[in-house]
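FW: tagging you since you asked about this chain on Friday. Here's the raw sequence from the shared folder, copied in full. Didn't touch anything.
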Amino acid sequence: MKKKKFKKELKRLQTEMVKLQEWVRRKGLKVVIIFEGRDGAGKGGVIKRITARTNPRVVKIVALGTPTDREKKQWYFQRYIDQLPAEGEIVLFDRSWYNRAGVEHVMGFCSKEEYRHFLEACPEFENNLIKEGFTLIKYWFSISDEEQERRFQERLNDPAKRWKLSAMDLQARAHWVDYSKAKDVMFEHTDTKTSPWHVVNADDKNSARLNCMEHLLSLIPYKNIKHEKIKIPSRQKDTGYKRPSIKKQKFVKEVY
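HL: got it, structure written out here
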């Protein structure tokens, strides 16, 4: 896709995202969107494009780190429940409770019993969320072996992207087949009629971003909210106010 066309479509979709945001806020919807996939598949990139023009008080990003010692002693889903949206909010999970079916299982961070219990409990947990009025949407970003390696090499060679390449990312390469098997089992147990997985072909970043955004907008029926006309008030009249001297203020050096 040519850059000009991508930017044009992206702007259109981002405008529609703002309309969706306003509809969700006005109607009091509770929307949960999960983004999963292999390391380097582009989850963060599409989340960044979705939220570029939206209100961060309405459309929120959740990217939890390693569980604390206290969280490890809680019910597994508990720390994710704390992040769920209230009415009129959209929450985007950059990785989610599906860590247990992926990295935790493959890297041995959970027991076999905890893993089996998750696969059994997850569909019921998600069904309960839907019964409680949440809209749950799940995306899996699919990337080829060759494209993942290319992106990892790009991160290694770009100082601005080097931070994106963690030790766990390198392990993902070493355990490629293990992760493939884990994903297959995860789909077998959690790709349900009420809460299906939507797979995004992510080898082409820009196409993946547009396709995901277009699909997301198609899943939640919305209308353009007509706002009341706003009149900007006149500036308050000066009734003798004198601005203090600016000589003592510390200004940022104008380099550009």
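FW: Residues 25 and 88 are 4 Å apart (CA to CA).
HL: agreed, and The mean pLDDT is 95.
FW: great, closing this out.
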